Amino acid sequence: MNELSRKTLKTPDDLVAAGLISQASAVSLAAVAARYVTAIPPALVELIAQAGDPIARQFVPDVRELDMAAEERADPIGDHTHSPVKGIVHRYPDRVLLMPTLTCAVYCRFCFRREAVGSEGALTPSELAAALDYIAATPAIWEVILTGGDPLVLSARRISEIIEALDKIPHVKVIRVHSRVPVAMPERIDADLIEALKRTSKAVFIGIHCNHVAELTPQAIAATARLADAGFALLSQSVLLRGVNDTADDLENLFRALVAARIKPYYLHQLDYAPGTSHFRVPVEEGLALVRSLRGRLSGLAHPTYILDIPDGAGKVPLQGGYLSPEGDGTYIVADPKGGRHSYPPQPLN
Ligand SMILES: *Cc1c(COP(=O)(O)O)cnc(C)c1O
Ligand code: SF4
After folding, report:
1. How far is the first Cα of the chain from the last one, in angstroms, to the nearest whole number?
2. pTM, 2 dp
3. Which of 31, 73, 115, 222 is most buried, by the most CB atoms less than 10 A from its CB?
4. What is the model's pLDDT at position 12?
5. Quick one: the chain helix, strand, coil %, rounded to 5?
6. Looking at the domain assignment, is residue 131 inside a domain?
């Protein structure tokens, strides 16, 4: 391993030095870098060298990120309208998102929170206390979902403080942690971090963000095995992405490898309308055909739910199962869980 492969790449110059982009594109990427944060940790720098495009596309900045489509928006799933306290998103009565930090181990170029992540770090102690107070004061909350940002970039000490605080709230029965760390920085899943996550008798589920079979390196599989052996239930979340996992073979290989690693495929997300992500977008019709083609071909264990987060904040619905009615011109009417109706893709903003 040379010196370069040991450091997290953050600037266009770092990317040039690592041979990931040319000097000429570093100039054109300056505007992208000014708008959206970049970080590619060592494990993923190495993986790009081995597995190429499907990994590089997810993490190496691209000038197309400056192209804003009319349907795209800064808050693509309407988080802001459901945030009663800083660090909390409360859309469904029985569960909340708790975002203790907006920092990530790696910044995905298609991220739905790309306008927020990397901008500020962790909640201050008093902000975190206020968020935990909100959860403690809201008896309807049955499940707390730690997300961000990536909660597993926090120190083991801070993670154990949060888990212990949640453990003390009687109406919280389930803690879910969403993270890309097992793939992006597998070495962080060490004994201290696992001990921190075990500071509760409540059910703990860990949702691992993984989009391509190559991300399940021997190191990543060893990290997820440590989590499974510690007794956590493991789920995966993937995003359907052009040029990354947009063939039936890509999805089959990914889902089989996840199940073999004791990770149950949970959601395959339709890409949200975050700014500058059109080059990743797979149309719903194509996504539905891909998902249909896997039925019969693949163990029932290996099928995630293909899921849409309705752009104006009405929540998530499966793309299969009668929630979508095609209008015949590539657009749909989506029924939300409460029976509201929404056009999809969303109406252009201008
Ligand atoms: C995605 C999301 C959840 C979790 O939804 P599940 O369908 O239970 O996985 C909860 N709250 C908010 C605000 C969300 O965006
Ligand atoms: S790890 Fe998650 S929150 Fe962070 S950049 Fe990637 S998709 Fe966004």
Report:
1. 50
2. 0.96
3. 73
4. 96
5. 35, 20, 45
6. yes
Number of H helices and E strands in the chain, helices first, is 12, 12
CA–CA separation, 160 and 166 (whole Å): 10
Is the separation of the CB atoms in 102 and 148 below 8 Å? yes
- Which residues carry out catalysis? 91-92, 95, 104, 108, 111, 113, 272, 309, 316
43, 79, 103, 183, 294 from 215: Cα distances, Å: 10, 28, 20, 6, 21
Give the position of tokens 């940790």.
Answer: 41
What's the rounded Cα separation, in Å, for the pair 153 and 163?
Answer: 15
Ligand 2 atom with the shortest distance to the CA of 113: 8
Distance, in Å, from the CA atom of 226 to the CA atom of 102, rounded to the nearest integer, reads 25
Segment 237-254, tens digit of pLDDT: 999 999 999 999 999 999
- The most confident of the ranges 202-206, 322-326, 336-340 is 202-206
Residue 61 forms part of a structural domain: no
**Ligand 1 neighbour 95 (Cβ under 6 A):** yes
- The residue range of the domain holding 190 is 67-319
Task: Find tokens 């992405």 and name the residue.
Answer: 241
Count of domains forming the chain: 1
